[in-house]
């Protein structure tokens, strides 16, 4: 166990020395990886920040059921109770509006009072306003409920505008696809950068590697410093990317705060949780270490 630990500490020491021994090359590689990694981090920050806003907007889509002329207020209330009992998991709130009360509310408005005075009778229908719960908020389920309720014999007109929900979900889906493509691009750039860097190091240190093999060094012992070199590069680039993303979001939030406050909706971009960021950095380290192992395996046989 002590030997294993000593070998790994030695490999980490050698990797750190190589990283610091070529500051310009190391800094260039780290900056390239960090800048590219910043893009998916910013995209994920936008996605993470918009999803709660989307849920708050689409969590309570309302469906309005307007009764036909022959449906009385008593029957409207019975229908409302029936829908509440049958779809209790899908309905958040339900409100029955008497057409007489609705007419009085309109007459209280100065802009409508004069126009309503000339009408011989109340043109408004009884209505049921249903606010859907979280379970029924997804577009497909909400549309299924709207389609089913529109077939009720008491219902004359059903109003449910789902186009804006579909557009919002399409935008979020597009961001997820872009995030996936950016992640794939980051992985490709990390592999390419680390592969070429380790290849050059293996060629420069070919004599050192040859002597190490002559005195009995195993292939694992030879490769281990290069693997840690890739992992340390990925770790440093990941931490720098998080810092750059934080600074960028800070600047964006200063601008977006003015815009969101004008609409009365507090909103700001935030990075994903720390556990998600730690997992991202760990994946970058694993990809970098794998690329380093691949490179040193291909270019250290001489």
UniProtKB/TrEMBL annotation:
Subcellular locations according to the entry: Cell inner membrane; Cell membrane
Main location group: membrane
Keyword DNA repair among record annotations: no
Domain called FtsX extracellular: residue spans: 63-156
Keyword Lipid metabolism annotated: no
PANTHER family attached to this UniProt entry: CELL DIVISION PROTEIN FTSX (PTHR47755)
The name this protein goes by in its record: Cell division protein FtsX
UniProt organism field: Advenella mandrilli
